[in-house]
Specification:
alpha+beta; HIT family, subunit A; binds adenosine monophosphate; binds zinc ion
């Protein structure tokens, strides 16, 4: 298995896990871009958004609710936050196991760079 996030999910590579359930893990990003920077990673290996199937719809909805809950419990609900996923080269995807960045704690530019 060569996938970094599959190895983290399997416990073969350490990570700072802040939440986990049967569907996903939330870990601290190793190179945070903001005071709040978590990665929400489905346990199921899916490369990116282009590979999502209808059967993944509940998983992704669940993931967004978990992400918003984590932001709220850390006090970022009023100030705001962003949930973003990158697909392929122009978006800067570097790990090809789908994941959603939860970013907050500073003013975020729009449109993104
Ligand atoms: P992306 O560029 O959207 O594919 O995001 C990959 C993210 O994974 C980046 O923000 C990296 O900082 C993060 N990352 C890479 N390796 C690790 C790791 N071992 N533990 C936690 N986060 C990581
Ligand atoms: Zn994987």
């Amino acid at each position: 298995m060569s996938c970094l996030f599959c190895k983290i999910i399997a416990g073969e590579i350490p990570a700072k896990t802040v939440f986990q359930d049967q569907y996903l893990l939330a870990i601290e990003d190793i190179n945070p871009a903001a005071p709040l920077h978590l990665l929400l990673i489905p346990r199921k290996h899916i490369a990116h958004t282009l590979d999502l199937l209808p059967e993944d719809d509940l998983l992704i909805g669940h993931l967004f609710r978990v992400a918003a809950g984590l932001a709220k419990e850390r006090g970022y609900d009023e100030s705001g936050f962003r949930i973003v996923t990158n697909t392929n080269a122009d978006a800067g995807q570097s790990v090809f196991h789908i994941h959603f960045h939860l970013i907050g704690g500073r003013h975020l530019l729009w449109p993104p760079g």
